[in-house]
Amino acid sequence: MDSLTNMNDTYVEVSLHGAETQSTDIHWRAKGGKESWNYRLLFDVKLGENEPTYKFPHLGLKMWDKDVLKYDDLI
Q1: 3-state DSSP percent of the chain in helix, strand and coil, to 5
Q2: Could you say which of 8, 27, 58, 74 is the most buried, measured as most Cβ atoms within 10 Å of its Cβ?
Q3: Residue 61 — very low, low, confident or very high, per pLDDT cuts 50/70/90?
Q4: Is the pTM of this model over 0.85?
Q5: Any bridge partners for residue 31, and if so which?
Q6: Which residues pair with residue 13 across a beta bridge?
Q7: What is the H or E stretch that residue 13 is in?
């Protein structure tokens, strides 16, 4: 959390094994870590026993604080 303003500019990166990583829009100036999104991400997924992700598909989520003047912070 930004110590000066007590606010975050939050977005989420979502990765699904075998698909390209996508991210949500940025929730600007979320006070006290309370964000809300109404956002949908669509992934192309191949199903079937012969696909490499059939048994153990992995969904990864990373929440970031967007910083304009320096690098983004992992929350």
Answers
A1: 0, 35, 65
A2: 8
A3: very high
A4: no
A5: 7
A6: 23, 62
A7: strand 7-16
CA distance 20 to 10: 20
pLDDT one-digit tens code per residue, 1-60: 566 677 888 899 999 877 889 999 888 888 776 777 788 888 887 777 776 666 667 889
pLDDT at 14: 94
Residue 51 to residue 45: CA distance in whole angstroms:
10
55 contact partners, CB below 8 Å, separation of at least 6:
none
Give the rounded distance of the alpha carbon of 49 from its chain centre.
28
Q: What DSSP character marks residue 8?
A: E
Contact 49, 61 (CB under 8 A): no
For the record, the structure tokens of 68 come out as 């304009």
